[in-house]
Amino acid sequence: MLFLDELDVICPVREGNAGGTTTRLVGQLLTLMDGLEGRGNIVVIGATNRPNTIDPALRRPGRFDREIAVGVPNVDQRHDILRVLASGLPLDADVDLGSVARACLGFVGADLAALVRDAAWAALRAGASVVTQAFLENALAHAQPSILRDSIVKLDRTVRWDDIGGLEEVQKRVRRAVEWPIVHRDAFKRLGLRAPRGVLLYGPPGCSKTTLVKAMAASAGATFLSLSGAAIYSPFVGDAEATVRELFARGRSAAPSVLFFDEIDAIVSRRSFNSSDSGSDGGGGGVQERVLSTLLNEMDGIESAEGILVVAATNRPDMLDAALLRPGRFDEIIYVPPPDERAREAIFSIHTRKMKCDQVNLAALAAATEHYSGADIENVCREAAMNALRASVTSTQVTQAHFDAALDTVPASLPPAILSQYQLLSTSS
């Protein structure tokens, strides 16, 4: 048995290397594997993490007859790996390797080995005689899967569903689309249900669309990846379509995963049937149209998007292409409305949790803030605290007068004309 590690370094594609050392090395290996009858009882095994960079002549039957993909381990496999890695460690009785395995989304064997090693070192530095669950969880908080190292999102794990004022029906729909296919996977299979491919959140600016996504990411139990227009169209990135394809490839390798596209109208816009209106860069329809085509194919094309949920947020749903909004791509299109009076009171309550308020009437503030978004209300609370600070640096309480002054300073950002447009879109959808 002959083992060739990192085969892509030994035998890369020969194009552009005519006459070089690489070409001679590839030719010699081809001859030895398939050109001589005297190869005898030799089995050649190669390993690589870049199969597409290997010379194609090596990948035909008679040379490398079988190609075996060693993917990212699932939760049961991660549990088995952790049991093996931790078998030589003094584990405390409270250690639950199953819960650690469920939390290690996208981790490969080397990542799990590093996790166990970090937990053991932490126990050694603390002078503990055993490795406890706390050491493992602390090591997990500072670890990240190597396959997602360049694109992993630093999540704000403190955002919960309770931190969102109102929007109870929206929260239910989002949680059904995101959490149910993961938590109730067996029920979906039993009933022949396909998990949603995409969820589109649209509504006026400042109405908690991104906060909903943060809460979703913290509670979904899935790998969370994000991509913005700035990252796709950056001059340092290069091929915008390749960036989208790479994001989906990483999502598949770390499934179940959630891919978030913020301000998706800035990433992909509606295509035009008028050839004179298609892209101004002469690139066969423009970069945005090519990115849109890539996104459509990745979400519902030939290649399976199993285990991937695409979540997008936008203030301009009218700018999106109809092909993107059909079932099978964005199955759930959810309108995130501005907060009503009860929701505004809940938002005031959330943003004044850490304030020391002196007889502040939150119900009266909610009634006085019609056409205010959630972001506006947060700004009102911040401005009220600043008013207290301006009155006295040693001030410890925020009063009703400070809030009334803040309302005079912070205007509403949702005029009725804008809201009526969103209401028409919500009824039509």
Broad shape: globular
Strand order of the largest sheet: 4-5-6-3-7
Structural domains: how many: 4
CATH class of the largest domain: Alpha Beta
Please trace the helix and strand order, writing H or E for each element: EHHEHHHHHHHEHEHHEHHEHEHEHHEHH
Rg, nearest Å: 27 Å
Q: Indicate the percent of residues in helices.
A: 40-55%
CATH homologous superfamily heading of the largest domain? P-loop containing nucleotide triphosphate hydrolases
Task: Please tally the helical runs, counting DSSP H or I stretches of 4 or more residues.
Answer: 20
Q: Give a count of the beta strands, DSSP E runs of length 2 or more.
A: 9
Major sheet: size, sense and barrel closure?
5 strands, parallel
Any overview of this molecule?
The chain has 429 residues and is of the alpha/beta class. It has 4 domains: 58 residues, no CATH class; 74 residues, Helicase, Ruva Protein, domain 3, CATH 1.10.8; 175 residues, P-loop containing nucleotide triphosphate hydrolases (Rossmann fold); 69 residues, Helicase, Ruva Protein, domain 3 (Orthogonal Bundle). Helices cover 45% and strands 9% of the residues. The chain contains 20 helices and 9 strands. The strands form 3 sheets. It has a 5-stranded parallel β-sheet with strand order 4-5-6-3-7, with helices on both faces. A two-stranded parallel sheet has the order 1-2. The protein has a two-stranded parallel sheet with strand order 8-9. The protein is globular and about 90 Å long.
Write the layout of secondary structure elements.
Elements: E1 2-4, H1 7-10, H2 21-35, E2 44-46, H3 75-85, H4 97-103, H5 109-125, H6 133-141, H7 168-178, H8 180-183, H9 185-191, E3 198-202, H10 209-219, E4 223-227, H11 229-232, H12 240-253, E5 257-262, H13 264-267, H14 287-300, E6 308-314, H15 322-325, E7 332-335, H16 341-351, E8 357-358, H17 362-367, H18 374-391, E9 398-399, H19 400-409, H20 416-428
Parallel strand pairs: 1-2, 3-6, 3-7, 4-5, 5-6, 8-9
Helix pairs in contact: 3-4, 3-5, 5-6, 12-14, 16-18, 18-19
